[in-house]
Amino acid sequence: MPTKKLHEVIYDNAERIVDVFVGRARRHDLPPRQTPHSEVVDDLHRYVRELALACERGDDETSEEVAKAHGGQRWYAGYDLRSVLLEYGLLRATISDVVLQSGYEMTSRELDRVAGLVNAALAAAAVEFTLRATGEINQALRTAELAVRAQEDVIAVVSHDLKNPLSVICGSVSMLDQALAAGDLNAGRDALRAHVSRIGRASVRMNRLISDLLDLTKIREGRVEIEVRDEHTSELLAEASEQSAPLAEQRPVRLVNEGGRHGVVVCDRERVLQVFDNIVGNAIKFSAPGGIVRLGVECSPAECTFSIRDVGPGIPTAQLPLLFDRFWTSPRVTGGSGTGLGLAIARGIVEAHRGRIWVESTVGEGTSFFFSLPTAQGGVATVV
What we know:
By secondary structure, the chain is an alpha+beta fold. It folds into three domains: 133 residues, Orthogonal Bundle (Globin-like), CATH 1.10.490; 73 residues, Helix Hairpins (Orthogonal Bundle); 152 residues, Histidine kinase-like ATPase, C-terminal domain (Heat Shock Protein 90, 2-Layer Sandwich), CATH 3.30.565. 61% of the residues lie in helices and 14% in strands. The chain contains ten helices and seven strands. A hairpin with a 3-residue loop joins strand 4 and strand 5.
């Protein structure tokens, strides 16, 4: 009777090898896998038989592919690197022990062959873990860099946009102090009123920026506070037009409430008006004097979509994905200052209502912003 060869012994004893290995692995307290136990065992059965066939062929390229395939799977099976190192050490020893127990004595060359195949799988697993770990570390570093950059942006915004109105306040207060020290308030009454007016405007700017920063923090942490109730879209549009009218007059820009197919939405009135204030304010700012900004709405049974359209310079396609990012400001118009918080806050408020917000624009033709809010059941009505 011809003597069996090594690959035949390993193939025939594959189940025994796996059984012994699993028992040893349990005693060594290997960490639990995400993959079910039965799948791990089936995977080991396949690998041991593939390893036996690789021993038979003696083809290094094929053997390497077998090792890579199995070693690479360790990551997806829920292993950590420590358990992989321990597993392959146990597997190598188990194959040798079971083969020896079957009555087959391996030569040193055969021992090296088996060890080489198992070590190749171990190396493939280690490479996969290293690549994955490096990728995760790089991603964590990128996230940390973004966080640091965001903090730097906040500092830059606070230092720049709070410093300017604060300088106005300090200068005007100094002038008032000098007037009080002179004891002649009547002689410069108009100048004093101008200084008080500047202080008021600067205080409003500072308060607005601080409120925006607080809102942004809440949005980032998922803590946007909204108190919803049924609101008619016609009333929302009318109030949005009214609150932006003074800014439109200063530009001057025509602000037109075009109405549309109205309905009833479920929303926080003040928060939605804040969205309008941010978007309409941008539309006015980026419109040339004499331009037109149009407000409208179209309702369906599920949602109402508000629109704010301007005929300004438009926004390049490459910039559209950046519009709702924190601290990003458009370079399309020179003059004026902005923090880049308004649209980020608008998006956070709309999404807190389970709505959508988006933009469409053509350079040279204008820009249209849209945001949708869910309707109240049965709240759709056609208004002429």
